[in-house]
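in:
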């Protein structure tokens, strides 16, 4: 695992956003859950994509789970 990516995604809010995205929530619903605008959620997702070097939500979730960055069990 690339330790730089692991450290970079330790940003609590990015992990929260990605975990909710893994549950299938839209940007608007993630925003409602975290009291953020959908635009802010979109920015977090773009940052996550860049850090994980992926181009979709599905790739981001799969990559993060495989790297142990988020846990989607029991959610």
């Amino acid at each position: 695992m690339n330790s730089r990516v692991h450290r970079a995604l330790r940003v609590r809010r990015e992990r929260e956003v990605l975990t909710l995205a893994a549950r299938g929530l839209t940007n608007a619903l993630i925003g409602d859950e975290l009291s953020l605008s959908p635009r802010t959620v979109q920015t977090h997702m773009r940052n996550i994509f860049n850090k994980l070097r992926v181009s979709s939500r599905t790739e981001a979730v799969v990559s993060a789970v495989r790297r142990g960055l988020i846990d989607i069990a029991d959610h």
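note: The radius of gyration is 11 Å.
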